[in-house]
Amino acid sequence: MRHVKALAMKYGIVLIVTLSVLSLFGVPLSWILFVTFLIILPAYVLGDLYIYPRYGSVIAAAADFGLYTVALWIILFLFVDRTATSIQNAIFASIFITFVESLYHEFIIAKMLNIKKEEYMRNPYVFLTEFSEEHDVSDLKEDKKEPKSDSAQD
Hints:
By secondary structure, the protein is an all-alpha fold. The chain has helices at 2-22, 29-55, 57-80, 85-112, 137-144. It has one domain.
């Protein structure tokens, strides 16, 4: 049931963006509803359930951008508009969808589905701060030399 809720929220979020962007280019409402449904299914399975837990939000957003761009371009080119502007429409819509998807990853997926990033996603070469004292080489050389006595000069 949690996946159905997450998928419905994803459909609503992506639908708002695709309605806002694709209606500017004269795409009919029925096609927008259909296209949105077709592209969120593989995006949810690949991006949210597979890539996000393993590689994090940035990689998942980049994968979503590529997936949305290619899927929107193919669907718009084949079924709606057989012109060169369909790639521009797809890229323009994908930019906004990717921004909203990154918010979706952090708030919906992480909180609602309790998907945590897996252990092997973390970098084993984490840089830590080292606390130590600074030593000057010239100070060390002076410490090793014996101090000159003032009585020798008299």
